[in-house]
Structures are given as C-alpha cells and as structure tokens.
Here is the input.
Amino acid sequence: MISVKQLSYLTVILIFSTGILYLPSITIRHAGNGGWLSPFISMMVGIMVLFIILFFHYQFTSKTLTEYLPLLVGKWGARLLGALYVLFFWSTGLLVVREMVGIVRITLLPKTPIVVICFMIALAIIYGAYCKMEAIARLIELIVLLLPVMVIALITGLAGAIHWGAFFPFIEAGWRGVIRGAFVPSSWFGEIIVLAYLLPIVSSHHRSFSILLFSLGITAGLLSIIVMLIIGVFGASEAARTPLATYELIRYVQFGSFLQHIDALFLFPWLMFMLVKGLLFFYVAMISFSQTIVLPSYQFTIIPLVFLSTVVSHWMFLDDATVSKFLEVVWPVYALFFEAAVPLLLLVLYFVRHRKIQTIRMSP
Amino acid sequence: MIKYSVIFHKNIFNWLLVIVLMVLITGCWDYHELDKEAVISVFGYDLISPYHVKVSAYLETTPKANSSSNGNEGGMKKPEIIRADGPTIYEAIKNMSVYTPNELTFHHHVISILSEKFVSSPHFGDGLDRITRVGATRRRGLFAVTSGQSSDVLEIKLPLTDDLSEGLLNLMEAAKEQQYSTQVDLNDFLYDLTLIGKEPIIPRILITQSKSTSFQKRIKVYGSGAFRGTRFVGWLSGNETRGVLWLRGKSGHPILRFPWEGGEIMVQAESIQTKIALSQTSRASKEQIPFLIKMKWQGKIVMYTGHRSLKVQDIPSIEQGVENSMRPVIQQSIRRAQALHTDVIGFGNTFYSSQPSVYRQKYLSQWNDRYFPQIQYIVQIKAKILNIGMTSHAPEERD
Here is the structure.
C-alpha cells in the first residue's frame, strides 16, 4: 500500500519531469511572453481528469480502470478499451524513455551508442518494475526533495541574468495565444490518468482530492516558474527557437565566478525524475495488460514489454527533432483522447446507465 | 540440492548483470582525458575576403601535456595560438583541428573576439547559427569587437597575467564598472537581437601603442560597436557607450567630473535608475515620437580639488552639477545612435511595450531609418548625493 502523500509526490514528478523538457519552447512559440500563464490553464484538464478518476474510484472501490471498464462498457468493449489503454500507457513509457535517451545523448554521453543508453535505462526500469509500486513510492519520497532544491538553485543562479523587459508588452500574443500555448501541456497534466491504477493501493483516502489538487497546483506553479525564467533569461523569441530551453537555462546557471558549469548537478535529479516517470508508465501498462488478459502476475510481462519498447522507440524516433514534432503535433490529440475524452465519455455513460436503472426501479 | 541450485542461479544472474554493466559502462565512449584536450579560451574571427573566414584560437593545455611534450616536468601552462581558414566558420574550425593533435574543446571558452570586417559581413550571422546550433559554446561566452585583426589581440601579452582570457575578462570587468564599455555575452547579444525595438552593442577592444610603454602593444577595453541586427554599423566612444548604458538602465559605478567652486569635484555613482516612457505631449506628430526619460542618480563625492569646506547647504548645487554633467552625455549618445540609424537604446522597445499593435503595424519596419532619428525626448535627471566622504575639505598647507 502507498500513502496519499506519496501519490501526490508522484503526481508532481509525473508531470514536471518531462513537462520541462520540450514544453516551454512549444508553449512560448504560441503564447509568447505570456507562456508562463499557460500551465495554469493546462492544469484545468488535470483537475477534470482527477475529478473523474476519483469519482469512479469512490463508485468502484479497490478496482482499477481496467477492472471497472466491463461494468461500464460491457465485456468486449472493456477488452477493446483495455487493450487500447495498454497501448497508450506502453507508448507513453516508450516516449519517456526516448526523451530520456535524447537528453542523455545531448548532455552527457554524445558519443555513446544510443542502443547502450536505451539498454541501461531499460535495465533500471526492469529492476524498478520488479520492486513493485511500494518501492517506487519510497524512491519518489527520497528524490522529490531535490525538485524544490533544483528550482531554488535555478532562481538564485539566474537572478541577475533576468531581463524584465522580456515580459513587456504584457501577454503580447493575447489570451488566445496563452490558451493555444496551453493545449500541448494539457496532455501532460492529463497523464494523471495513471492514478486510476494506483488509487486502489492507496492506504487511506482522507482528503485525497484536496491533496492531489494541491499537488497539481504546485506542478503548474513550478512549470510556470521555469517558463518565466526561460522567458526572462533568453527572451520569448530566442526561447521559442530553442527546443531544449530548460537545458540551456541550466547551462547558463552560474554563482559568481566560483561556481560554474554545474549542469550535471541539475541533470542528476532530472534524469531520476524521468526514470521514475518511465517506470510508472511501464508499471501501469503491465498492470493493465495483465488485468486485460487475466494473468496471475504482471511480472511476466516486464522484460518483454520494456525491451520491446526500447526497440520500438529507436525505430519510431530516429532523431530528436521527430520526438519534438511528435510531441507538438501528434501527442496532444492522441494523449488527450485517452486522458480526457474517454474518461469523460465513460462518466457520461455511467450517468446515463445510472439514470436508466433508477428509472426502471422507480417505474411501477 | 534445491537450495544450492537456487543460490547458484541467483548468483549467476547477479554475475551476468555485473558483467553486462561492466561491458556497457558508458565511460568507454565518453571519457575525457584532460591532457588530451586543447581548451579554447579565446577565439578570434577575421575576414580574409568576402568568401573566406579566418579563425584563431588561443589554446590552453594542461601542465601535464606541456611537460610530456617539452620534457619539463611540472612546467607552467603554455598557451598556444593556432589559425585556420575556410569558406565558412564551420569549415574554418574543422580545418583548425588538422593542426592540433589534441581534441579542440569549447567547454571553457571565455571570449570571442570579432574583427570589424567580420562583423560587417554576413558571416557573423551565419556564425551565430553555428555557435547556438552546435551547443558546445556556452551562452556565457563573452563577445568583443576590434577594429583591426582579432588574431593580433591574441598575440598580445597582458601585464601581470599569463592567461589572456582571464586578463581580458578583468579588463572588461573594470570597463564595465566605469561604464566606458560593457560586458556582453552570447545570451545578452541574442536577447537584444531578437527583442523588438532594440539593437545590440558589443564592447570594443583597442590595441594601443605609445612611447611610454616603449611602443609595446597594449590592450584597452573602451567604447563599443553598435549593431543593426547582426551587422556592425559603427563605433560608440567611451562617453557615448556610457550614455547608452545609463539609458539602458545598466548598473555600474561611473565617476563624473565637473568644475565646482574654484576646483573640480568627482562623484561616483552607486546606482543609476532609468525609466523611459512614451510622452503624451500634444505637439507630437506621427513622425516625431515623444519620449520622457527619467533618471535617478545616487552616489558619493570621491574627490574635490578646491579649498572650500563642503557643507550640507552645498549639496543641492553639487547635485545640480551632476545633473548638468550627465545631460550632455545622454544627448550625445542619442545623437550618435540616431546618426548610425540604430536604436541601441531601446526607444522602439518602449514604444512597442506600450502600444504593441500600433508599433507593429506602422513603425516596426521603418523604425531605425525613419522614426528613430526624429524622436523627441525630454531628459529629467534627479541626482542625490548620499555621502560627502570622510573629510570636509582638501588638506591645506599651514601659512
């Protein structure tokens, strides 16, 4: 069992870890210098998904999304949707691994063959998945403290380099731009759908909605700070043409003339967060897979699914530009379908069926 | 027996894991041997012909590398300069690697020195793309522009230091403090370049030769080069650079000197705050955009050559003197920028921040050529002396 507190830490890491990779550049491209407001609008999608999954959790206590699907869409519908969700979670995990490989190659190991980096990450994920959710949650508790340290270090290390003029005119692209800039990040906030598989193993649900809501707010705030720093240091135009703007920001951090070139210190926690995120998506993919085809344990699926993902990620995304383009064009629609559209339809379906049952019961 | 096989299999798995990890340990590909690297600390860009670029690198190798090549164990760091040319910056840098057995690295690059001819050519813009695209150079890397050949700067030995990059950095710091020049890194340059209504400047490096130094070449960081986009358009003197920096709201501690009561008084700024806003005067036409410049100077008296004892009642007149000595500097720098047709101060950006759609539609395309040279402005300076120093007047000889 895991606690709500651990679940809230997990929520922050889940969205923040990859959110700061390509998101700032994509957001700023649409929202200009008002990009720092976009995460708060994207958060609305996260709140909606959180409300739906918590609602279903209270209706079907101790059941995961795959387990209560038959009660909503029937046996065959549940199998089809379950299989699609397996594909979604697995492909998201795959994407996270590919993003991680990309950042490792650009920053730390440019000469190391991509297959080796993939293999190393896959080994770490396999080990983590064998350790089960409780161990992952404890790991999150250990590393989550590095997140505020990372953000505070960024703020202090860049304080003198911020151009306040970059924020004027206020919201130069208008509110329409801010909303457009919020579209892609909303798919990151929608990733909270994985909680639909973790809520049944939460020990106590006391104030779970408010705690998770607070963690969503914290995540939006942290993302907003990062986007603000990027705009302030580089300016909106320069940030928009720099796909890995957060990494460039980290490289710019300097404390006086005595502490420079400290990007590796930031990369360590960042890569840990990404690893945990990838691990979480694979874990959920394995759980939903084993529940869809009724396997006694998800552990049989770990090695094949993870290794298959390393191969497919290499095959699907040959270069980092493809990842960036995929995240901007394909990913939001694809992800939001599973994260928001399907849960919303399920909720509508639930109310329709519920009303039908009530009408039948009430009729003489 | 069963127990033994379980332990055996478990150990086999662990050993296999260790072996696989050992083989795949990624350091095998990305290791760095410090003595095998040629660290570029200063890099020079010159133009040989419109289609040919020359690059010069001031390399620093580690003591170990020197000692192994010279047989001088534990010897001093010995900088080396290498040069190469090519049709583009990328190819010139590639050709440079032919001349050095060590791997060229930009990770600790400090300053790029650009020649006037180079920054007047399109190669500079192309070079910016190369620098930011490859990503080896950090955005903290500084820029300086020189009227001669940048490679000449690399040859000069600075007094009291063997490290040219460190020496140049210190010279720039000092010039920045006095505001006769500034410090611009790659990020600052790109920020000004991409900001609407503001053009970049880069500090100038002057090579001087005088009798007092037995005609030995010396380096001085003084003034700056004004740009329009990525194209160099002209020089700003030390005073003009000062004015531009004040108007840009850059902090520093410049000293001002002006006559006062039979002597000269010198004041040092502790802070200068500037606010430029669009002025709403009725006389303004669409062609002549009016601006209001409000400056707040705070500082202290550092020297007085007269014999009068300074009193509290004198402070307002000294403050007036500060205001009067600042005004012509500001006017001169604006006039120079207008003559060069480049808004290095950022009046256009102030206008854009206040009325973005109007500026974009009507003024953006012709701001530097048509509207900026005609702007009207009012300068309001408020000086405040915070400290008159430790003494009231200069020491006097006994009669």
Notes: The radius of gyration of chain B is 28 Å. Chain B has a mean pLDDT of 86. Chain B has two domains: 33-236, 247-399. The first helix of chain B runs from residue 2 to 24.
